[in-house]
Every structure is written in C-alpha cells, then in structure tokens.
Write a structure and sequence with these properties.
Number of strands: 9
Largest sheet: 9 strands, mixed
Number of helices: 17
Structural class: alpha/beta
Shape: globular
Helix content: 40-55%
Strand order of the largest sheet: 1-9-8-7-6-5-2-3-4
Length: about 350
C-alpha cells in the first residue's frame, strides 16, 4: 500500500493560526519552527530555561520568550524540541502541570513517547511533526519559498482533530510545500535511529575512518587518503541525492561503476547485514534506548571518552589542515555550533 503524502492543498492553515503555540527550545529545530510559525501568522512564544544562552537569539529574532512553565501555561499547543534525554524532566516539571483537555503536545522525534519516557496525558492530543532536515535548512528553504519534507504521526487523538492540527502545523513551517508523509511514532523513531546508527552517522563515519586508516597503513600520504575517503564523499552523496544511486553510477566513470558493483558487496556482506539486523533488534526492543538513557543519567563518561577519541583520530588533524586551504568549502555556511543549543 503506497504511503500517504500530503501537500499544501490538503492542509487548513486556519487551524494552527487559531491556536497559541509554545516552542520549547531554540536550538537547530526550535529557531526554525518558531520563526516559520511566526511568519505564517501563528501566535507563538519560545519557552526556555532562565539561564539559556539561546534567550538573546530568540529575543533578537523578535520572538517573545517565557520560562518553559509560563510558555506551556499560556499555550494550547506545545512543541517540545529539547534533546531526547532532557524531555522527560522538562515535561514532568514544567509542562504536565499546565496540560488540560483539548490541548496538544507535539514532538519532532518520537523517542520519548515510543520508549515510554513521556506518557500520553488523558484528554490531550499527542502528535508529531518531524522535518527531514536540519533546522537551518527548514528556515532557509521557507524564507526562499520552498520547504523541507516532514513526517506527521498521531499517538493520541483526544479531540478527533489531531491529524488536522499536525498537518496545519506542518504547513505553517513550510513542509507541505515539499510533501508531508504520514507515519507512526514507532516507525519514525525506529527508522530514524537505525538510519543514524547504521548508515548516516555510525556506518558512514566508521567506513570513512577505516578507509583512511587502511590507505595510511599501506604507506599512502594521509592527505591523499583524506581526499579519497572523506572529501569526495560529498560529491558522490550529492549525485545520489539529486539522481538516485543509478543516476550516480551513470555520472561516474565506468571504472568507478564496475568497482562499485563488484567490490561494494564485499564490504557490505552477509556478516555486515547480520549486524544491521542485530542493531535494529536492539532499537525495536528498547535496549538501545535503555542504554542511552542510562549513559545520560550516569554522567556521560563513556560518551565523552568516545567523543574525545573521535576528535583525536588522525583524519581530523589532516582534514582541518586541508580545509583551511579551501575556504570556499565553508563560505556562506553556518557552522554546527551556530545552530545548536536549546
């Protein structure tokens, strides 16, 4: 059965325009949601901790800023955009006391709901609007007249109009200009975690580092290894993004295509596929969620160690030196730290 995809003609902008919205958090997604909603005629305010470094940014953008509790009390739609591990405490202390029948609690990722960290309050709509792109792109494409695709899902439809509300919200942040895919909290969460761990982040970074190490260990210059195993990844990914895998293969040399077709399956072989299935099983069972929450609650010692080891990898020093010689790479782009925070 084909997926259901909604566009602007399917959404009713007046639904979200008739509501008062609190955006909790002003990081990558929060700044984009709040500004896009405001520019779509929605009454929006930003909820932040008193000491948040993002307060000045939100105020500079002309947005009213409240404490999280005050923002939740004032609003009948609350979009919780804090980090997954922070959400349960924020919900319990500052949001739950201000929920009432008919209000709506929205998420941009289903982690806390899927794994039972935040219960669905009685009488409250619980839904998801999840843009499939970073916040700076959600904002930039909206300003340019376009949009980033999004997923919507309904976990609890207390009012009978939760889907319509989620779709109206998605429209207000520009997502219906590109397409909004109907899904479930479980599907979004499980596929998102799997994609991050196996392909987009974990799989890709491990593959890049292993390729770099293999060439350097064989006596090749680190700079050559960097270009081949990291720098050119963007060129190939851009072709895949624009034209699909077959389109990429059409665009590269026949030598590269033959190597792709014959050697790629030797890297992603049956043992790798079996490990992918084990990782997916850990996600679906809740094992990964339990591990990550326990790591967070214990102080992130292992996380910090692994992060430091990654920063110390030789490819980082080589890359920093080479990128400094290519200022065009970052010209006009935002650094990751410029769009982080909450």
């Amino acid at each position: 059965m084909p997926a259901t995809i909604y566009y602007a003609a399917d959404a009713d902008p007046s639904i979200i325009q008739a509501r008062t919205v609190a955006v909790i958090g002003y990081g990558s997604q929060g700044h984009a949601h709040a500004q896009n909603l405001r520019d779509s005629g929605v009454d929006v305010r930003v909820g932040l901790r008193d000491a948040s470094a993002s307060r000045a940014k939100a105020e500079a953008a002309g947005l009213p800023v409240r404490s999280i509790a005050d923002a939740a009390a004032e609003s009948d739609v609350i979009m919780l955009l804090a980090p997954d591990t922070d959400q349960p405490a924020i919900f319990e202390s500052s949001i739950a006391p201000h929920l009432a029948d008919g209000k709506a609690l929205l998420f941009a990722h289903g982690f806390a709901v899927r794994f039972g960290l935040i219960p669905s309050p009685p009488g409250v709509d619980v839904a998801m609007v999840a843009p499939k792109g970073p916040g700076h792109l959600v904002r930039r494409t909206y300003v340019g007249g376009g949009g980033v695709p999004a997923l919507i899902a309904v976990e609890q439809d207390a009012t009978g109009r939760a889907r319509d509300l989620a779709l109206s919200y998605a429209d207000a942040i520009g997502a219906t200009r590109a397409g909004v895919l109907a899904t479930t909290f479980s599907e979004e969460t499980e596929t998102d975690l799997f994609g991050e761990q196996v392909v987009l982040c974990g799989g890709l970074t491990a593959l890049i580092q292993a390729g770099f190490e293999t060439l350097v260990e064989a006596g090749y210059e680190p700079e050559s290894a960097y270009f081949e195993c990291l720098h050119e990844v963007k060129l190939i990914v851009d072709l895949i993004y624009e034209h699909g895998i077959s389109g990429m293969r059409y665009s590269v040399s026949t030598t590269a295509e033959y190597g792709d077709l014959t050697r790629g399956p030797r890297i992603i072989n049956d043992s790798v596929r079996a490990e992918m299935r084990r990782i997916l099983a850990e996600i679906r069972s809740g094992e990964f969620a339990e591990e990550w929450v326990a790591e967070f609650r214990s102080g992130l010692a292992n996380f910090g160690r692994l992060e430091a080891e990654g920063r110390a990898h030789p490819i980082e020093a080589v890359g920093a030196r080479l990128r400094s010689m290519m200022p065009f790479i970052n010209a006009g782009s935002e650094r990751p730290q410029d769009v982080s925070g909450g």
